[in-house]
Design a protein that fits this description.
Elements lengths: L1 E3 L6 E4 L5 H13 L1 E7 L5 H12 L3 E5 L2 E7 L6 E4 L4 H12 L5 E5 L10 H9 L3 E4 L8 E4 L6 E7 L4 H9 L7 E9 L2 H13 L3 E4 L5 E5 L7 E3 L4 H14 L2 E4 L13 H7 L3 E4 L4 E4 L8 E4 L7 H7 L7 E4 L11 H11 L4 E4 L2 E4 L8 E2 L5 H10 L6 E3 L12 H7 L3 E3 L2
Bound molecules: shikimate-3-phosphate and phosphoenolpyruvate.
Amino acid sequence: MEISPSEKRINGNLTISGSKSLTNRALIISALANGKSKITGILKSDDSYWCIDALRKLGINVEIQDETAYVDGKGGEWDTGSLYIGAAGTVARFLPGALAISSKGIWEIEASESMSKRPISDLIDALKEIGADIEYLNHEGYYPLSIKGTELVGGNVSISGKVSSQFISGLLIASPYARETITVNIKDHIVQQAYVILTLQLMEQFGANVQYDNKLNKIIVHPSHYNPQEIELEADASTACYFLALAALTNGRIRINNLTYQTRQPDIKMVDVFEKMGCKVTKGSSFIELEGVAQLKGGFEISMREMSDQTLTLASIAPFANGPITIKDVEHIRHHESDRISVICESLTRLGVRVEEYKDGLKVYPSKPKPALLNTYDDHRVAMSLALIGSKVEGIQLNDPGCVSKTCPNYFDLLESLGLNILRH
Ligand SMILES: O=C(O)C1=C[C@@H](OP(=O)(O)O)[C@@H](O)[C@H](O)C1
Ligand SMILES: C=C(OP(=O)(O)O)C(=O)O
C-alpha cells in the first residue's frame, strides 16, 4: 500500500467504532453472568472476533446484530474443547481465569505466533496461587496452555503489574467466582493502571462486590456473581487518536462525534500531548475536536507509561515538530504485538529520521522524512502510526497493512475518506 498526502485540508467529523478493551471485557463478563446481556456499540475486529469465537466454542450463545451483541451467559459453565484466540492480548489474559473458575472441564488454548511470544507467567502464577490448574503445552511461560477446571479457592495473592496491566485485569475478572474473598496485592507498579480501573468499574456494573482505592495497592474481591446487563460501550479512544494525530500533523480539523474527554480510557490523555505541541482541543459534552497548527512544537520529554499504546503515534509525528521529543517509561511495549521500541526506531531510521533508542523509550529529532518501504511487523499500531507520515510525505509504502484489522479494519478507508491518497497494490 502506498500513502500520499491529501490535496485538500484534512477536515471531518468521524464516528469511531467501540473500544476493544471494553468490548472484550463486556463479552467475557457477560458470558460469566447467568442470563442474557445486551451489549451495544461493540467493536467488530479481529480481537473481538476471536473473543466471540472462543465463547461460542465454550457453549455460549452470542448473537450479533449490527454493533449489538446478545450474550447468553451460563454462570461459568463452559463446554470442554480446543480454542484459538488469535493475537488478542485481552482474550489471552482474561480467558484463563474465567475458565479456571469452573468446577469441571479441560481446555487447550492456542494463540497466534506473536501472542505466543508475549509473556503470561505472572498471570498464570497468580491464578495457580489461588487454586487454578494450568499447564504450558510448549514453552514455560507462554501460550499454548492447557487449563483444567478445578474451582478457585481464593485468599491472598501477589501479582506484578510492571509487564502488563492485563495480568491484573485477568485475575480480577475471575475473582468473584472464587470460594473465598480474594485480596490482590500489587508487588510493584501497574504499567497502565487506568485499564485495571476500567476492569473494576465494569465488574461493578455487572454486580461484583469489590473494594479498592485510587492507587490500587490492594484490591479486594468478595465472592459474588455477575448479573446480566444492558450496556452501551464507548468508542475506542486509542483508535480516535490516529485521526486526531492526522489533524495535528496536517494543520487540519477532526471531530470525534462519539467520544469525550471524560472517558476513563487512558489514551484520551494523548490530547494533552497534542495541546502541548500547539494544537487546539475542544472538549465537548458529546465530542472531542482537534485543530492542528502550522508548526508542531517539540523540545520536551514525556512519560508515556499510562497511555503507552500512543507511543508510536507520538514517535511518528515527532519528526515534524520543531524540537526533539523524548519518550520514556515504556519498556513494557517491547512485549506488545512487536518489540515496539525497536521497530519504531528501525522504521524512522529507514525514513531518514534521526532517532536514539533507549531501553525504556526513544528520542526523535526534527527531520525531513523521505519516502521508504516499511514493514508493519504484524502490528496494527505500527501500521496505523507509520501511515500518518504519508499525510506529509509522498509515497510512504507499507508492507502487509492488513494487520490494522486487529482493532480498526476500516482504517485506510477512513484515511481515504478524509482525502489521503491510498494506492492498494
Ligand atoms: O486491558 C486492556 O484492555 C489493555 C491494556 C494495555 O495492555 P498492557 O497493560 O499489557 O500494556 C493496552 O496496551 C492494551 O491495548 C489494552
Ligand atoms: C497492546 C495492544 O493490544 P493487546 O490487547 O493485544 O495487548 C494494543 O492494542 O496496542
